[in-house]
Amino acid sequence: MRDRWRAIGVLAGALFAVNVVARVIIELGFDGNDTAADRVSLGMFVVLGLILAAVVFVQGRERPAGRWGADVTAAVLIALALTVLVGPLLVGDNPFGGGAGLFFAQIWLYLLATGAGVAVGYLILTALGLDHRSQQLKRYAEIKAAKPRRVVRR
């Protein structure tokens, strides 16, 4: 159980670190330039999605969807809370300074980007037939095909 929470913490930390790097780049390099800040934010969301797609691809091969899904959900929710509440404080902003609209927009965009990353990773994994369930079904079919048919005498 401890290893499971450690993996969740590492993933949440990595997702939060991507956000912190994006915020620092915006603050130091593009302060006042909204177009560049939007591009850096878009790049951050793409990186978040790619990280989650890779994690889902790797974890989905080894573990059932319910197990890795719970871990990824927990990590995303922890990283979301850190990103929305702590991230602005690191660059000297107020988390609620932009108003409720901006606050909730950050939450929805974060959930959209992470959800898209998870979906892409799982769809690729399933399309290639490498997910845990497909592998179980493949092993079952091989075992059933390997046994000779039992002859019944009457």
Number of E-state strands: 0
Helix content: over 70%
Which H/E pattern describes the elements?
Answer: HHHHH
| Shape summary | elongated
> Radius of gyration from the CA trace?
21 Å
Mean pLDDT: 87
Major beta-sheet overview: none
Terminal Cα separation, in Å? 55 Å
Derived structural class: mainly alpha
Number of helices: 5
| Fraction in beta strands | under 5%
**Uncertain stretches of 5 or more adjacent residues:** none
What would you note in describing this structure?
The protein is an all-alpha fold and 154 residues long. Helix content is 82%, strand content 0%. It has 5 helices and no strands. Helix 2 (34-62) packs antiparallel against helix 3 and helix 2 (34-62) packs parallel to helix 4 (100-127).
Give the arrangement of secondary structure elements.
Layout: H1 2-29, H2 34-62, H3 65-90, H4 100-127, H5 132-146
Helix pairs in contact: 1-2, 1-3, 2-3, 2-4
Entry summary:
This protein is 82% helix and 0% strand. By secondary structure, the protein is mostly helical.
What key attributes describe this structure?
single chain; 154 residues; mainly alpha; 82% helix; elongated
